[in-house]
Design goal:
single chain, two-stranded antiparallel ribbon, Alpha-Beta Plaits
Length: about 190
């Protein structure tokens, strides 16, 4: 036996014991601990797919600076891989789908591609939560439909009940969410 023999055996003994003790705990935590999933951010018009966006965006702030609605902000979360990239938070400001979609037209990196037709923008889709919607309670609220820059090809208000979203027409601009008067919001944008 070498000079390390007894020490090596002890280390192995303690290592195996530790694995036996901690292994089941690690398995339990892996099965029951719900770690946060990466957040999908609402990107400005013309955004390339999210998996390439973070690598392509220069984080230069050009789109933030040219947005006439001041809806685009740089994400400030150093723990997020998307830190510094442009996002839209419809609870604070929403995209107005300006005529020229100036943010995409001025992006130097290619993370936002120029968009020729503002009606073809697909930033996300509005989702309605009927349990929260004032219309589901019989009130005649039309804030979301009145605010929609696309109109009846994106959102429709039936005679009663909550509004109906037409996924093929909804651009995901966030105007409906911004103008919804309920807390929590009865309509939110699910980013694409």
């Amino acid at each position: 036996m070498t000079a390390d023999g007894p020490h090596s055996s002890r280390r192995r003994f303690f290592r195996e014991g530790l694995v036996r003790m901690v292994g089941p705990l690690a398995d339990y935590l892996g099965d029951h601990l719900h770690l946060p999933t990466p957040r999908i951010h609402l990107r400005p018009p013309g955004a390339i797919p999210e998996d390439a966006f973070n690598d392509t965006c220069y984080r230069c702030g050009t789109c933030v600076g040219v947005c006439p609605a001041k809806a685009i902000v740089a994400l400030h979360d150093p723990s997020d891989a998307a830190h510094g990239t442009p996002i839209i938070d419809p609870d604070l400001a929403a995209c107005t789908l300006c005529e020229t979609l100036i943010c995409a037209a001025n992006c130097p990196s290619g993370a936002l591609l120029p968009v020729l037709d503002r009606y073809s923008v697909r930033m996300g889709t509005a989702i309605v939560y009927p349990a929260v919607c004032l219309r589901a309670r019989g009130e005649n609220c039309t804030h979301c439909t009145d605010a929609c820059p696309i109109g009846v090809t994106a959102i429709q208000t039936p005679d009663s009940g909550p509004p109906r979203i037409l996924a093929n027409g909804c651009t995901g601009c966030g105007q409906c969410q911004l103008h919804c008067p309920t807390t929590p919001k009865a309509i939110t944008i699910k980013p694409r």
